[in-house]
Structures are given as C-alpha cells and as structure tokens.
What we know:
Elements: H1 2-22, E1 32-38, H2 43-56, E2 60-66, H3 69-77, E3 83-86, H4 92-102, E4 109-121, E5 128-130, H5 131-137, E6 145-147, H6 153-161, E7 172-173, H7 177-183, E8 191-195, H8 197-200, H9 205-213, E9 214-216, E10 218-221, E11 224-226, H10 230-234, E12 241-248, H11 255-264, H12 266-274, E13 278-279
Parallel strand pairs: 1-2, 1-3, 5-10, 6-7, 6-8
Antiparallel strand pairs: 3-12, 4-8, 4-9, 4-12, 4-13, 10-11
Keywords: Signal
Protein name: Phosphate ABC transporter substrate-binding protein
Domain PBP: 28-263
Amino acid sequence: MKNSILLWMFGFLFLAESCKKSDHVVDTPQQGTITMEVDESFQSVSEALTERYMALYPGTKINLVIKKEDLALLDLLDNKARVIVMSRDLTDDEKKAYKQKVDLDLLPAKFAADAAVFIVPKNSTRESITMDEIRNELNSDKKNITFDATNSSNLNFVAQKLNTTPTKLKFSIINGNKNLAEQLNQFPDKIGVISLNTLSRPYDAESEALRNSVKILKVVQGSQSYEPVLKNLANMSYPFTRVLYFLTNEKYFGLGNGFIRFSCTQLGQIVVAKEGLQPYNIFKREVQMR
C-alpha cells in the first residue's frame, strides 16, 4: 500500500512537471507566434513576406506591428519584438547596446534594395534634383522638403547619407508615406520624400494610383542623373538606394530565424521581386542562345 502511494505521488509530480513544460513550448519555424515591427516605409514588402510565410506554414502567426524604425529597435532590445526591419546603419552606441542586451553578434540579414525617392506634384515642371539642391533645401528656413514623419526611416536615412543628423536639418512634415503622396498636390512648391516601396507594387491598384498622382524626380550626382529603377538599385548607382535588413534577438532557430531564412532564400526573394523591389540575393540572369 505504501509503495502504491509513492508510485502515485511520483506519477502525479511527473505529470505536473510535463504540463508545466508544455506551457513554455519554444516556437519553431513551422509553429508559434511572434511579433515583428517595421517602419511604415517598408510595410508593403513586410506584409507580402509575412503573408506568404504564414500561408506556407499555417501553424505560424507573425503579428506585424507598424512602428518607427528607431522605436522598433528599442523594442527589439527590450525583447518586445522578435524581428525588426532596418534600413540605416546602426550607430556605434546602438551596436554596443545590441551586444549588451541581446548578447548576439550583429548579423544583418539583407533581403531587398529599396530607396528614398523625391517626388513632386504630377503637373510640376521639375524633372530632377541635384545633391547640392537637397543639401541647400534641408538647410533653408523655407522647409520645401517634406518628410513623412519626424524620426522616420526616410528622414534618418537621408540624414545619414548626407553625413548629418535629423536635428540639424530643416524640413516640413505630412504624416505617412501614402498621405504625403496623396496630399502633395495641395503644396505645389514642396518636394516630398517617401519610400520606393510605397509606390513599387506593380499590380496593386492603390500603388498604381499613387504613382500616377506624383512625379518621381531623378537625382543628379556629378554629371549623371539617376532614377530609382531596379538596375540602379542593383548596382547602387541611385544615390539614395538603401538595403533593407532584418535584425532579431532570437538565440535559437525558431520562428523568427525561420522567417528570416525564408525571406533571404529564393521563395522570399521572388516575393520581394513581385513587390517591385530589387531582391538582394538573386539577380536576373541573361542567357544568350546561339
């Protein structure tokens, strides 16, 4: 009788411990739920990639949260998000914070070439803008250059490209990439700055309407002018080309790393191409047949 009671107690403890462990199951690339945060500038390509991944693996759920790039980085460091998308280089202080808080080597997973594009109303006579004009306008009290938000990815990237900081620049704001494109016609003297991804989806009615409502300016550098088209993104000749990359705080091969791997391999890169962006890891190959 005594032995039976002991066996029953051991069995109960084993069952309780098993149930306790099952409450803390680690996610896998095929199952689980995570949060991914991205700037609105990269929302379109991020939605396309997450939707495709979840369709392939119905047991997964990637909650996509739209948040400014800088705030997304803070959430990653505080373990509030598993994966984020970045477009600018991290500062030395940010790299140190990543190493201290996440305790991983910094390994950006590059997956697409996007761009910050300069737009004007459709009926504007302007066709291009020089690098010097951009610098001069961003130091002018007229504030003719308009960004989608303070501390947005577009503003941060342009400032970094010009070797300065956003706090030293003078500009106006119309909140949101899409809002900026839609409202720019009300401000004929303004030059907007939005992400190429806002306009790039080739077969999307909303993207097509936005493209038709504005004019994308060529950027003149030296004696050459460059459009934000795929060949100029592929060779990085368009001056404001930027490479989008993932960062994660995941220390095992779970859902976050599974999604990142998918996005950087052929299936994910095909999704990037369908978004009208330049895939980072696959390029078009020309074959001559004789």
